[in-house]
Every structure is written in C-alpha cells, then in structure tokens.
Amino acid sequence: MKNLPVFLMGCGGVGRQLFQHIVSCRSLHAKQGLHLRVVGVCDSKSLVVVADVLTAELDDSFLLEVCRVKSNGSSLLTLANSGVCQVFSGPEVIQKVIDIGLLGKSTGLAFVDCSASAETIGVLNQVVDFGCCVVLANKKPLTVPMEDYDKLVSQPRRLRHESTVGAGLPVIASLNRIISSGDPVYRIIGSLSGTLGYVMSEVEDGKPFSQVVNAAKSLGYTEPDPRDDLGGMDVARKALILARLLGRRLNLDNMKIESLYPEEMGPDVMPLEDFLVNGLPLLDQKIEARIKQASANGNVLRYVCLIGDARCEVGIQQVPKDSALGRLRGSDNVVEIYSRCYEKQPLVIQGAGAGNDTTAAGVLADILDIQDLFP
To answer: Is 14 annotated as a binding residue?
Structure first.
C-alpha cells in the first residue's frame, strides 16, 4: 500500500467536501493500492496537525469532525482537547505550515490549497523549493506577477491545478495534452462562469437583466454580493491561467476586463441593497439593446474569455447561435479550443463548472495523479 501524505489549506466548502470524498473513497483507493494520509489542515487563523508528520495521520472520524466544526462556523481551536493532534493559532500558523513542508522534504508531501486567499502564495513558493507537490483549487497563486508565477511552476510535474479553471472539467489536462503533442493552440474561447452563463442565457429569453441577477442571487448562484461575479475578475483569473499555459507572458493588468456594472455602482460607492434595488434596473435597457443587436446578426450574447495570438480579454461577445457557446444553457461551463488539428471544428469541453462537490472531485483527481512521485 502506497501512502500519500496530504496537508490541506482552506477548510471552506471545497475543503470540507474534499475530506468527505477522501473518507468515502477509502475502499476504492485501497483496491488501487493507495492510502491518502491526511497529516493536517489549516484555515486563516488556526492549524491542526499530527504530532509526527512522517508517520501519523488524522483518522476519518476526526476528518468528519473537522467538517462538522467548520460547517457550524466554529474554530479549529475547538479540537484542541481531542488528544490526537497539535493545534496552533495566530501569527505562528504560517511558520508552522512551512515547517511541515520542510519535514516532507525527504519523503514528499502534497500541499492542497482549497482556500481563496492570496496569503498562501508565499508558503507555496517555499514548499515548492522543498520538493513538495502542490495541488490547487485556489486561482490566486497562479495569477500573481510573472516572477512569482515562474517560481511556482518551475517543477510542473509537481503541480496540479485542474480545478482552478473549470471545477472538475478536464480543461487544463486536455490543453496540456494538445500543447505537449506539438499541436499549436491559436485560440480559446469559453464561458467559464456558471453564474454569468446562467445570467446571459436567461436574459436571452427576454427577461430583464436586473430580474435575472436577483433570481440568480436567491438561487445561490452568485456570491453574496453579485458584483463579485458581474465584475468579471473571476473569469479574468481563469483566462490568465489558460493564457499562461499557452506561453503568454501576461499579468491581470495587461488584460481587458469588461464589468457588467459601471464604476459608480461599485461596492465602494453604492451599498449592496441600493445596487440590487436601484442600480441594477438602470442596466436593463443597455443589455436589452445589445441582445437585440446580436439577434439581428443571427447571434447571441455570452460573457466569455477570449485568448488569441494578440489578445487576452473577458467580456460580452456575440457568438453564433448554433455554436457550443450559443447553445449553452444554465450554469454549465463551455470551452472551445482551436488548434491546427482542431481548426474547423474546435475541441469542445462542456459540463458543470462550479459547485463544491464537483470542484473537490477535481482536486481529488489531481492528488491521485501525482501518486507516482511518492515512494
């Protein structure tokens, strides 16, 4: 039986779902000759770790207790009296995590980042130097300035980040296969936000933009403040990750990012309730006019990322009705990849591109993909 030691950063919805997947897949992994040995977990304020990272593990009942505690909004510190782990909090957490990475220098350790924090970037760059593996659902470490990015990806075999772009969809794996085969990719266009995919397909049916956004919020499709989705930054980060895979030396500052609301309706200017009640309806007429114009051209509107030889941008684009993007409905993600081999008919990848369950499944698949790097 091969043991693969895992340390998790981030215990939100995706991190907790990952623990549940690990526990539920024990018998499956045992048949494959693999055991995932979870040695610790941390959030932004506290850390739980086994006394001996090289041999011990947090058992399944403890992992499920971590899920219960964090689901209730409690701190990992409440697990201090369990007797099966060490608990740290405050400023020492980051240094303790780095120390754990150093312990794994000789035997290997998989650092899994399911947070949404930029604070993990420094830690990840250090543990990469130790020879540890890194698995990401967090997009921010891959959208840092190029100098830090180059360091993180300096050992590509030890890095997996499928879930940073399309949750569990095999977008990055497929793109890497195409690139590795020497087939030049010259264009990628994709709808990479389930939220904005839903919004654009609903307004296409004639519903007012403001009504659709409020409905999406009530259904839980958006962030608590929908402007976090409507601003396009999440899609921009995903687009930048793909562009860099193609060798583009870009930063977020180099990209054209279209926001679906004007600056004067931003979070720093307009309170959320005011935006939802008074701001959104002011945008209905403009969106409706763009929909009519697209329809007159035989097209539909989609909020997409567009990566080509000379540009990398995100925003509303007209796409043919009969294309994969034009047929998109609901909250699915769709990516079209054009290359020499896929010139007239692109490679199309479509499916659920959001959700804790789907994203965690993608993270787990990435962890399993690096098992051959461990003794």
So the answer is: yes
